[in-house]
Write a structure and sequence with these properties.
353 residues; mainly beta; 5-stranded mixed sheet; 1 helix; 2% helix; F-box_BR-signaling; KIB1-4_b-propeller
């Protein structure tokens, strides 16, 4: 297998991408972050070494980084502007305390229970940064079975605020847990363990969040729910989609929306109907949402830019499968040059999104 440095030398180098078209941030196992232009098929530039760091999420040019000392920060990979974030143990909660017991180890005490052996290796996160770079939302959690909380902060916050993911009332237990989540601006969408979708408004002053789901959360269940990998995504209008593919032979993707004809979604085996077009939009599944198609920028309508499912919640990890699938033509484009790199991760990104 060709090593990352060898591959870098074998591909043409150009100046950093500035066209605004979709690009790939690549994270080789031997460290660092490089930018790949899928149109030209070349490595454009090295974005930094980042020794000992983990990359949790991206938003436009910005990365959410957890360093070797378990400190979180946001960095613009082009300008190198860095925004430090509160420490992981800085949480405002009525019934929870997080304590650091080592550089990468933590314990969490909540409601009389103590969760030990929490490692920085299982911290996952989401990030949104405004185009101006002045506003941001950061969300993180320890990704372990039985998710009970996630924590978030915004620009100007001095600590994180917990969002509970379990209910004390037994009648609401079907809405417990977490299987996937999407952050779009200050709006958070959560797919629960039983695939019910909840929505939260994170705008407002420090510590504010509001469940805006409504009285009847809707489950996103296809006929193949247990057989295939799936993720949720959100359109520009705020509609939640289910994205599905077969991990054994990823030659197709299916997209679904809420079926308005389902009378009793709480007891239905499948609750969605397939859609065959994104209506002039394209999907960047790494970010979890659609963007308007733009011919000048090479953003083709009905395209799904994909690297892996289960990105925010890796209890069921999946291998990378970097590709672009077009719903209209049923065509799939892969990037064989990248097979020569020993990649730990890769993320599609779009400047400003």
């Amino acid at each position: 297998m060709m090593s990352s440095p060898d591959l870098h030398r074998s591909l043409k180098r150009t100046s950093p991408q500035s066209s605004g078209s979709p690009g790939l941030m690549l994270f080789p196992r031997d460290g660092g972050c490089v930018l790949y232009d899928p149109i030209e098929g070349n490595i454009q530039t090295s974005l930094g070494d980042f020794p000992g760091c983990r990359f949790l999420a991206n938003s436009g040019n910005w990365l959410l980084v957890l360093d070797s000392g378990s400190s979180l920060y946001i960095i613009d990979v082009f300008s190198k502007e860095t925004i430090p974030l509160p420490s992981l143990e800085s949480i405002e909660s009525a019934d929870c305390i997080v304590k650091r017991v080592g550089d990468r180890e933590f314990i969490r005490e909540e409601s009389g229970a103590i969760y030990k052996d929490l490692s920085a290796d299982v911290v996952r996160g989401l990030l949104w940064v405004s185009e101006s770079g002045k506003e941001y939302v950061v969300l993180w959690l320890f990704d372990l079975p039985g998710h009970s909380y996630m924590s978030f902060c915004k620009n100007g916050d001095t600590h994180y605020t917990d969002i509970p993911l379990v209910f004390d009332d037994y009648a609401f237990h079907k809405f417990d847990g977490l299987s996937d989540m999407v952050l779009r601006g200050t709006r958070l969408y959560v797919s629960t363990s039983r695939r019910f979708v909840r929505a939260f408004d994170l705008s407002g002053p420090q510590g504010f969040f509001k469940d805006i789901t409504g009285q009847t959360p809707f489950p996103m269940l296809s006929r193949h729910d247990q057989r295939y990998d799936s993720s949720i995504a959100v359109t520009t209008s705020g509609e939640v989609l289910l994205v599905e593919s077969d991990p054994r032979s990823r030659t197709w993707f299916r997209l679904y929306k809420k079926d308005p004809d389902v009378q009793d979604p709480d007891h239905a085996c499948h609750t969605v109907t397939e859609v065959h077009s994104l209506g002039g939009e394209a999907l960047l599944l790494d970010l979890g949402f659609t963007v308007p198609a733009n011919k000048a920028l090479g953003i083709k309508p009905d395209s799904n830019y994909f690297t892996r499912h289960f990105r925010p919640c890796h209890c069921s990890p999946r291998d990378l499968d970097i590709c672009v699938y077009n719903l209209a033509t049923k065509s799939l484009v892969r990037f064989p040059d990248l097979d020569k790199m020993n990649l730990m991760d890769a993320r599609w990104f779009l400047p400003g999104n």
